[in-house]
Design brief:
The complex is a heterodimer of chains A (874) and B (139). Chain A is mainly α and 874 residues long. Chain A is built from 32 helices and two strands. The longest helix of chain A is centred in the last third of the chain and has 44 residues. In chain A, a hairpin with a 3-residue loop joins strand 1 and strand 2. Chain B has two domains: 101 residues, Helix Hairpins, CATH 1.10.287; 35 residues. The longest helix of chain B has 33 residues. Chain B is an all-alpha fold and 139 residues long. The chains are: A mainly alpha (874), B mainly alpha (139). Chains A and B meet through helix 20, helix 21, helix 22, helix 23 and helix 24 of A and helix 1, helix 2, helix 3 and helix 4 of B.
């Protein structure tokens, strides 16, 4: 792990060097300007030192293996991607990637519930913020007309305001702004190098960076400024107060970070060039002083086993190097010369002084107040951690070299930044120009002389030190983190409610599912009520139609409420016959014919299938009959309304003439419906017969399972043997006589179909009825459903495919004149062959169904009989 | 458009919905058949007024629209096939469970039971917490 971390650290460093090239375009979505460069420097530079520090932080047996460096490296990559991103897409992806890697790093000690909780909280808040940000960015891209950030011009208007607020909220969650800051103190459950890196120097700066980048775009949006300033000031003050109320050294720093980030957001939102420059200076200074402070706390933690400032004592003697770094970095944080923090803070106060009107009235007191509090918690941090008399000094373990290297290097930067202020200035100024061109006139001033800002600074330091010293003398009761429970409760709530919602929606009850669908249908018809017109409605087309409609509905109602299964089946037959009659009245003989035969077969199917069931329906026990009734009535009314409104606005007149001519000229037949089915729209029919073939296969499979299970002593029961329990010579004879006639009828329908009512379906259904009759009577028959369906499908497929071989379109039908006895000369052709396939499939389906249903019934009945016999025997 | 036909369609739909929301599989199949009828009748009704049978050259009177009839014929045969398949399924259900009632999905019920248990546990924990707090306050 040692070596690996070192290698990774080296890799990060070299990447950083490679990027010291101005405005390098390394990809479609990436752009590295001076601001990105500054951030890159922070990410890579601090990253390297953090990696070095981590090798000391984790002792060889600390566990975690390669997981930690791998995750940390993944974070580095995401952060660099975020910094370089130049399109909102890239930005968002890497933004979320840093949230996820942060989640993994915070939860690094995954055996502790506390760490897991904190990680989850951080992810929920930053993740939710990410979504808000995405919404804002999308609106922004829409307004600006481009998704490339560097090409965006200033936007304004209501949509821009929405975008500004959303983006600002997203930035506030990432940069731990009040009231979203609750995740940051929790994130201190992470190993300290992670806290130093992610939660002070880099990731939490992402929000600040975003505000800086987008400030020019939102410069005309007032809401942008005020949302940002509100977030910033609230966080700056609340974070600093929070820092004074903590006893854990690391938490003091974390709350301090919230405060500092608030100051940064405030400065970047204010929009003035001076504030912008001050923000950039602080951005750099904060990274450079906060990271070593965290690392020092990490070292203290590792070497003493505690971070509680009430327990720590005398460390200034036992840990001199760490103490030195802490003093330097702490003073820089407090804004004391000769350290980088001083000119940065000076610039911030200058910027506040430079404002006018309401801006100044708000910004100046709060920034100064925040500065006082900052000095106060810094003082308390230093006294608490390193102070105390030597007599009760805390035991300290041996120093670890890698940790010291990192802390000293980082700590030295605060000094170097001050000493080489011009160099730092050029770096900061270049970055500041990216977000506000007017920032170029400012610089970091090492010693300003007796100016107002300097006087304020002095007062701030003195006041702050006194306050800090005062607070350090008393023991503080650590308050509950307000809001943390809310965030956790939110997540717990989701986890609690998810299974409940699933249980409520996916309850597993078929009737309720179906009722829900029907309800949706009813709701969908509501708007159609407005379209209903009565002009096109007639009471009835004929008296027969009215009578049939009434009888049919009455029969259906009877079927719904009758207790006997056989009775219900018979009402079904009645409904079917009424349907058939309505078709006749309407002028649809083909439909009437088909419906009649279909109904017969279905009723027989029901009767055969019902043999397995009790004669009466079980007593209804359902408690929601009322709801079902209401839903049914609404459903019926809804369908009627939908139809009535559809009839009110016809899309055009029916293409009756075109279809008639097409039937005669193209299909060579007079029965238009039949020609449509077998020629003009033969593809539909082909699909339909495939469905029928599939259904047949399904029924056959079900029947086979039942038959194999029910095989008694290896003997398969004779199909249909139970249909009529005592063979009846009368019935047998009648069926024997009727069969040939029925076959002739089927043949007639088949050939006549092209010019008169009839066709393949009807013929198939009639033939199927013959099969049923013979099966029921126990007469022998030679039809094999599987073979019928296979041959039928093959015929249909060949007819469909032959035209392709011949170079004609798929399913093109050939017409020829054929002389058929009895019918005379008819014009037909391949359509007739196609219809033959349909007929065979229909016969196969009926045969398979009757066989299957009787097999199932037989099984149930014979089992019941066996049970009865055995009971009687015992 | 004939109100009589609309009435017929509405009646069939209503009875169909009532039946398919039942727990009894054979009633559901009955309802399915009725809904199929309603749909076919709806197709034909929407296609225009009645007329002579659509046989070319058979009559001078205007013929009924043949296009919905072709669609309806397909629909009739398809729902016929599906009905037979559902009957077979009902029979299979009978051999497996001894009745043709539609039971709730077992896995879904199990999930719901788990949710209820978890909720009950959470409530218990909450109550215990409150009790502890009260205890602390009283001492």
């Amino acid at each position: 792990m040692w070596a690996l971390t070192q290698i990774i650290a080296g890799g990060t460093e070299s990447t950083a060097q490679l990027l010291w090239v101005d405005a390098l375009d390394i990809g479609f979505e990436f752009r590295i300007d001076d601001l990105a460069l500054l951030m890159t420097l922070l990410v890579s530079g601090i990253g390297t030192l953090v990696f070095i520090n981590a090798t000391g932080y984790f002792s060889a047996d600390a566990g975690g293996g390669t997981r930690f460096p791998a995750t940390l490296l993944a974070f580095s990559t995401s952060m660099l991607g975020l910094v370089w991103a130049d399109s909102i897409w890239t930005l968002f992806i890497f933004w979320e990637a840093t949230s996820v890697t942060s989640f993994l790093l915070v939860g690094h000690k995954n055996t502790y519930a506390d760490a897991r909780n904190s990680a989850r909280r951080a992810l929920v808040i930053t993740g939710a913020g990410g979504l808000v940000l995405l919404a804002g960015l999308l609106i922004l891209a829409e307004q600006a007309g481009t998704s490339t950030i560097s090409e965006m011009g200033a936007v304004s208007g209501a949509a821009a305001t929405t975008a500004a607020v959303l983006v600002m909220i997203g930035a506030a969650t990432k940069s731990a702004q009040f009231p979203f800051h609750v995740w940051l103190p929790g994130a201190m459950a992470a190993p300290t190098p992670v806290s130093a890196y992610l939660h002070s120097a880099t990731m939490v700066k992402a929000g600040v960076l975003l505000v800086a980048i987008l400030s020019p775009v939102f410069t005309d949006v007032a809401a942008w400024k005020w949302t940002g300033v509100a977030f910033g000031i609230a966080s700056m003050l609340w974070g600093a107060i929070g820092a004074l109320r903590q006893n854990d050294a690391k938490l003091i720093l974390a709350w301090g970070t919230v405060s500092q980030l608030g100051l940064l957001i405030t400065l970047f939102s204010l929009g003035s060039a001076k504030a912008n420059f001050a923000g950039m200076s602080l951005l750099l200074a904060h990274a450079v002083f906060k990271a070593p402070l965290f690392l020092v706390v990490g070292e203290v933690d590792v070497r003493t086993g505690t971070r509680d400032i009430n327990e720590l004592s005398g460390l200034r003697r036992s840990m001199p190097i760490a103490f030195g770094v802490a003093v330097v970095a702490g003073l820089s944080m407090a804004g004391v010369p000769p350290l980088l923090g001083f000119p940065a803070k000076e610039a911030a106060i200058e910027a506040a002084l430079g404002l006018s009107g309401a801006d100044r009235a708000i910004a100046l007191p709060t920034i100064v107040g925040g500065a006082v509090l900052t000095v106060a918690y810094t003082t308390r941090f230093l006294i608490g951690t390193f102070g105390g008399s030597g007599s009760e000094a805390t035991e300290v373990a041996e120093r670890r070299l890698p940790m010291s290297i990192a802390t000293v290097s980082l700590g030295a930067l605060s000094v170097l930044g001050y000493v080489f202020a011009p160099a730092a200035t050029s770096l900061i100024r270049a970055a500041a120009i990216e977000s506000n061109a007017k920032s170029e006139v400012y610089e970091l001033i090492r010693w300003p002389g007796l100016k107002t800002a300097f006087v304020i600074s002095v007062i701030v330091v003195v006041l702050g030190a006194m306050l800090g010293w005062f607070v350090a003398q008393r023991s503080v009761r650590v308050p509950d983190t307000i809001g943390a429970e809310n965030a956790d409760g939110f997540v717990d709530g989701i986890l609690n409610w998810a299974p409940r919602i699933t249980a409520a929606i996916q309850h597993g009850s078929l009737p309720v599912y179906l009722a829900t669908m029907c309800l949706a249908m009813v709701v969908a018809t509501i708007p159609l009520v407005l379209d209903v017109e009565t002009g096109h409605l007639v009471r009835w087309d004929s008296a027969a139609q009215l009578a049939l409609s009434i009888i049919m509905v009455a029969a259906a109602l009877a079927g719904a409420f009758v207790g006997s299964r056989l009775g219900a089946t018979l009402t079904l037959g009645a409904v079917g016959i009424c349907m058939s009659g309505l078709f006749v009245v309407h002028g649809a003989p083909d439909l009437a014919l088909t419906q009649l035969v279909v109904e017969t077969v279905i009723v027989v199917g029901f009767v055969v299938g019902l043999g397995a069931l009790t004669a009466r329906f079980p007593e209804s026990t359902d408690s929601w009959r009322g709801i079902r009734l209401v839903l049914s009535l609404l459903g019926g009314a809804g369908v009627a309304i939908a139809l009535a409104s559809a009839g009110a606005t016809p899309a055009g007149s029916p293409p009756i003439d075109a279809l008639t001519n097409g039937a005669v000229d193209v299909g060579g037949g007079k029965n238009i419906v039949n020609v449509i089915l077998t020629d003009l729209r033969a593809l539909d029919t082909l699909g339909e017969v495939v469905v029928l073939a599939t259904v047949t296969a399904g029924v056959l499979a079900l029947a086979r399972v039942v038959r194999e299970e029910g095989r008694v002593d290896g003997v398969e029961p004779r199909p249909g043997g139970l249909m009529i329990s005592t063979p009846s010579p009368t019935v047998e004879t009648a069926i024997r006589i009727a069969s040939p006639f029925a076959v002739v009828l089927a043949a007639y329908l088949f050939f006549a179909g092209h010019n008169n009512p009839g066709g393949g379906f009807a013929a198939g259904l009639v033939l199927g009825s013959v099969v049923i009759l013979r099966t029921v009577a126990g007469l022998p028959r030679r039809t094999k459903p599987r073979r019928l369906v296979t041959v039928g499908t093959l015929i249909a497929a060949i007819v469909a495919l032959v035209p392709i071989v011949a170079g004609d379109p798929f399913l093109d039908m050939y017409v020829a004149s054929i002389d058929v006895p009895v019918f005379g000369k008819i014009k037909s052709g391949s359509a007739l062959v196609f219809d033959l396939g349909v007929t065979l499939i229909v016969v196969g389906l009926i045969t398979a169904s009757i066989d299957g249903l009787s097999a199932i019934t037989e099984r149930v009945v014979s089992e019941a009989r066996r049970t009865l016999t055995s009971e009687a025997a015992s | 458009m004939s109100v009589a036909l609309l009435f017929a369609i509405a009646g069939l739909t209503a009875v169909g919905i009532y039946l398919i929301t039942s727990r009894n599989l054979s009633r559901i199949i009955l309802g399915f058949v009725l809904l199929g009828h309603a749909a076919v009748l709806g197709l034909v009704t929407a296609g225009g007024p009645p007329g002579e049978a659509p046989i070319a050259g058979a009559s001078d009177q205007p013929i009924a629209n043949p296009l919905p009839q072709a669609l309806a014929l397909t629909a009739i045969v398809i729902s016929f096939g599906l009905t037979l398949f559902m009957l077979a399924l009902a029979g299979r259900q009978q051999t497996l469970s001894g009745s043709d009632l539609v039971e709730d999905d077992l896995e879904d019920r199990r999930l719901a039971a788990r949710a209820e248990r978890a909720a009950a546990l959470a409530d218990l924990a909450e109550q215990a917490e409150e009790r502890d707090e009260q205890h602390e306050e009283s001492t």
